[in-house]
Amino acid sequence: MMHMAEQAVPRPVRVPVYLDYQATTPTDPRVVEAMLPFFTERYGNAHSEHRYGWEAEASVNVARREVADLIGAPQEDIIFTSGATESNNLAIKGLAWAYKGHRSHIVTVVTEHKCVLESCRRMQEDGFEITCLGVDGDGLIDLEALKAAIRPETLLVSVMAVNNEIGVIQPLAEIGAICRERGVFFHTDAAQAAGKIPLDVEAMNIDLMSISGHKLYGPKGIGALYVRRSKVRLRPVIDGGGHEHGLRSGTLATPLCIGLGAACRIAGEAMEADASHLRRLADRFLDRVLADVPDALLNGHRMQRFPGNMNLTFRGVDGNRLMAELRELAISSGSACASATDEPSYVLAALGLNDRDIHSSVRIGLGRMTTQGEVDFAADTVVRKLSGIQRTRV
Amino acid sequence: MPRQHIYLDYNATAQPRPEAVEAMAEVLATAGNPSSVHQAGRRAAAALSQARDRVAAFAAVPARAITFTSGATEANNMAILGAPQTRLIISAIEHDSVREPARRSAKPVSEVAVTGEGVIDLAALETALGESDEPALVCVMAVNNETGVIQPIAEVARLVHDHGGTLFCDAVQAAGKIDLAPITANADMASLSAHKFGGPPGVGALIVRCDDGSRRPLVTGGGQERGLRAGTENLPGIAGFGVAAELAARELRQASRIVELRDALEHAILEAAPDAVIAGRGAPRVGNTSCIAMPGMPAETQVMAFDLAGFAVSAGSACSSGKVRRSHVLSAMGYDDETAGAAIRVSLGWKTEADDIAAFLEEWTRQYGRAQGTASERGAA
Known about the structure:
The complex is a heterodimer. Helices cover 39% and strands 13% of the residues of chain A.
């Protein structure tokens, strides 16, 4: 491996180094370029009956196809939303409201994003029963436990594709096959997965999928929900003019739709290159840090993971001290949503980590724009700051 | 191809302000999630807070009253579906994004009539309020999107509050056209949309003056916006919203330029076509909107013909376009199907010039002449 210590002289990198690609990604300059004309010259309302409107509508539909192509879906099954949080809300609440009285049970996983768990909790108030599957020490669900959890009254299984805190990939195709066989709907929160790993709604038997713009180098404020409309009924969460087949009302934000489309197209084209870039950088970082920092552990399955998401525990290092020592790295101690509060990560807790180890953990996220110089700087910083640090006994 | 492109559909979406686009482009070029605690996150949080202050100043409310949303449709849904009140009263001219959630709320909804000029009937409102002792959520828009008629929000609020009710005011078409202060000082809640006054699409706000904690969120999850609206904030959009709000507030004083153009247009049309109808002309209106019925000519035909000639106007609101549907606003004002079906909306904005209006008038008169010709041929046959 070519990571000799004498080469680890800090290169000219911009500090703090941005390593928080799971919180949000920079918008790809090509995406920004695609969006800008729709703010300035081509500003029409896509619902207007004149050329400004038709032009906007045609462009939105190109974007819709670009989103659909990324996940092997027909374009008419893509609903634009304001982001993955809304998509997850619409998928879970919308489905539950539509089938209330017919089915009454939802299966999800303890490591899901907060907005999935919150939406399920909300449906509990409407009489739905929720089964929250646990995960093993690697963060993966047990397919036998899933099979056992599905009952005749089960409506939905909601399992995220790539976990936002630890990057593990759940076995989507196997889950989809089980759901199809048992006649329940399968929703996956693919906010961290779309554009990063191959997804195919047909091969994986996915009925609903949530996508976020700003997690795949697109803009904030836009997302999509794939809905297998031939099979799935939904009630809208946001009602009004009847846009998006009545599933999501509100003037379409044309520039944002264009941005999401461009981001999906680029991600589809760049997926292999992005993945090998990230694998190489992640291996380089982990080889160095796991070897040189005592008691450093990678959380989550070692192989079945998205390489750009590395959650590490530095056992015995106090959490506040850890963040202070690594302040030259823009990283996160959990999900961005939870970092304003100081709650210990429920995802790491589900893997079996104790509170102290959870507080000694950080998420380091790499992305398309991350350079080898930045990764070396990060590895060097981690090794330098943490190798000799005073540790509490664990 | 038409030789000109004249945009007169600002109530559907306004041409974005270059300054707002610039602010957005700047934020788009930088990464950062306002919920993250590192430097990029803090910078994003600071931009978010600056934009919130700007929108708050524009709406004359404290910053904490602002909840950013994906647009006014979401804000209207939040206001209605999140309300603790057990009954609803809405005016007959509300936007679909108010009518639909009201219908779906599974609560009893009373609809309050408007006068022939499109102003809410205050006596009818009082009757509706008195129908039950249960406090009501009352939805009355500040300015109608199709006619531009301004509703008497202060009087409405007095009645609503006398009856222990809560007033929600869709202020989307008021923003940038009239001062928001008298609206937000009287209504308990209001909604705004950035793209209607020169900001970007995809962002809006719900204003809640006194949050007593009894409201329920619509989209739940990450706890953003103090738990009222989950989801990573659309930071570039919000930054653009802030800049557009600041510009709009500054330029309210210049609104007289637009009124003069609009009034001159209406005057000339009525002069040329004494049988033309301008809906709500006798009521207080915002200065940019004109709802004009050209007798005998279906609105869809007019919109197509105007488009071919290079003018963007609309038949009713953009939201219901695509489906040819009679305007519920004009029928609430008592217009028959024929007149309502012949009405187009012309809406001016910050980039509209006198030449644009002169050209539009010329085209309108030409179409009117054609309609007259067809009518007399038909009469002769």
